[in-house]
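chain below, 119 aa
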Amino acid sequence: MRNFKKKALCLLLAAGAAAAAVLPAAGADSQTKATDPAAAPAVVRAVPCAACGKGRVSSRIVFLSDWGSTGNPRPCDYFPEGEDMLESRQGISNYRCPACGESYNTYFVEYRWACHGFK
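prediction:
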């Protein structure tokens, strides 16, 4: 039983080390602009095509604007002075079926709070 626990622990440590080597660090370059469609990662989700029923519709982000202020402040959550600003950006996702070529775009808006506080 003790030998099994050692082997299981070694296996878990090896899997963790392999995952750490492959996955990006949390927060590393989290605000990369993806205005270049080639820089936008493809989305893994895929659904059956409604037009032909044969292909799997895949999507990818083809445009992301820069973050811009919406003009809606709130008191800063972290510092006694200053405000947090509500920021937004727009994006376009393209959905395409490789079997029949059916394609369409959807437009979306993302929001985030940016800290502009100070001591």
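The chain has one domain: 34-118. Residues 21-34 have pLDDT under 50 and may be disordered.
thats it, cya
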